# Entry
Amino acid sequence: MDTDLPRGAAGYLVAVPVAALCCLLPLLPLPAPLAGPHWLGAPVDWPKVGLLAFLHGCWESLAQGLPSPCLRLVRLLLRRPRPHGRPPARPDVNAFFPVLFAGVLMLPPAAAALVAAPAALLGAAEPTCRRRQVWNGSQLALSAFAASVVFHRLAGPQLLLGSRFPAALLPGCAALAAFCLVNGVLVGVMRLLAEGPRRPSAHRPQAHRSSAHRSPAHRRTAAVPGLPVLVHAAGGLMVAVLWQGPYGAFAALLALLPLSISAWVFAQGHRERDAHQATVQALVQAVEIKDSYTRGHSERVGRASVLIAGQLGMEPERLRTLRYAGVLHDVGKLGVATELLRRNGPLTEAERRAVEVHPVHGYELVRGIAFLGEAHAGILHHHERMDGRGYPSGLAGEQIPEFARIISVADAFDSMTSTRSYRRGRPVTEAVTELERCSGSQFDPVMVRALVDALAVHDWQPVLPPPDTIGAVPDIPLGVPEPVRAAPRGVPAQGGGSVPTAGPS
# Structure
């Protein structure tokens, strides 16, 4: 039972499978008054239904990077245990619909709905996810049923059997639109019931986070993608035309080969991204275990960096890499003594130098991770300043990599709004004022303005300390000058105590 779902969403989770079962009623030998229109469920070519359902399950498994039903059956018969470490199914990312669309075009509506069921019910899922798995199969069955009804009402089967093109494309396009509409409405209502009508928020988990951090309604909720569904629909039309032609099912299966290779490649790509995410999260957890007062800081810096870059119009692939850089910007603290990171009092000059080399340690730790790419420079230089008084290299202005200039603003902003052991967090308005005051000297003005514009659209809630510790944390105003910094070895000394800083990290 999904006890973490609101009552309305839990009821909806039951209602959709019940509605899907009602779509299958025309397949039963019901009395004439209850049977409905003849074309809804009969006549049914059961071997064709079974084969399409089996093929749909196989290709769904392939698209999600999971073992096929045949392989799982062999393992069951041989009593071999399920391999450990395999990632969960990702129907919200990858789905393969050509076989399902072919069933919509070739079968009565009730039988077309039945094609979607086995893939969901027999898929490889954790026991705790079975109810969501049933819901996914049910909403796909309802979508297929609606699409097939539209196709039949527009005389699609007759046009398709007679190979009357392009006339047959009109009911096909209408069926595709009905499939996408029903699927989108069902998924949208589930998300609305699970989360409620909430405005976008900068402190809420974003879409690029792993499924373990999503709301229950988002996990394993299959939504039809935009552009790929058109390709899948074209593949389904090709399968239906060839299947009902002189060459039969064998030719139809050959037509699926190029799409199958594409689906497998996409599945491997998503598995690789999952591995990247797991690598990043492992490094972040190691830092947060060592420096407990900055727990959550890395994730927030990653989100703030994405907000800034989003205002700049950065392309999605670089946004993903930037988020990695923001999340890992303090990974070099693994090379700093734990006692220095957790100390409440001031640091000596030697201790400060030991802390200020953490960007170099971070770069050394991650430079062998190829997928980070541009993130390497962001991690190394996120403490540089526009006036050249930063560290570790004393870069100035445009010499500082773009990722580093973005992370610098995001890092300082979250540091100022978060409570640390040595000072209390400040309100967002005060932090923004301090960023603007240091704009041009410490921070890139373009990045500061982008963050201010993003905060006008997205909420950002300061991280408050536990109520019983508020009185123990000093309330130090922002903009207090820091003592003279001695530079790390090989780096020019920084300015004197009058140099303003917008918050340590």
